[in-house]
Specification:
mainly beta; single chain; seven-stranded mixed beta sheet; 123 residues
Length: 123
């Protein structure tokens, strides 16, 4: 699976932004998918994920503000972000696990990564 994230940019606090991740490969529908982010000088952390059955999970920091969704027909996974805060500033990455694995919060469980897209939220 090859992944390509897009949609980052510079926004103001309170704005909304949607990130998209396009994937190649015929097994997309059976991969659990995650969005991670890495702020300046910080570790890469889990933001949101959707498993291959469609169940979702969110980090506490984004719960209620971010929504992850997948479209298996289009091989895409999106992250809708609203109520953005300066602390959401980071490089965002989409990632996929190997087929049929349960959704993991640890980045080490993910085998496929896209290039990040930068989100900058100004105050």
């Amino acid at each position: 699976v090859q992944l390509q994230a897009s949609g980052g940019g510079l926004v103001q606090a309170g704005d909304s932004l949607t990130l998209s991740c396009a994937a190649s490969g015929r097994t997309f529908s059976v991969h659990s998918l995650g969005w991670f982010r890495q702020g300046p000088g910080e570790e890469r952390v889990f933001v949101a994920g959707v498993d291959w059955t469609g169940s979702t999970h969110y980090a506490d920091s984004v719960y209620g503000r971010f929504t992850i969704s997948r479209d298996n027909a289009k091989n895409t996974v999106s992250l809708q972000m609203s109520g953005l805060k300066p602390e959401d500033t980071a490089v965002y990455y989409c990632a996929a696990e190997s087929p049929y694995r349960i959704l993991a919060l640890d980045s080490r469980a993910y085998d496929y990564w896209g290039r990040g897209t930068l989100v900058t939220v100004s105050s």
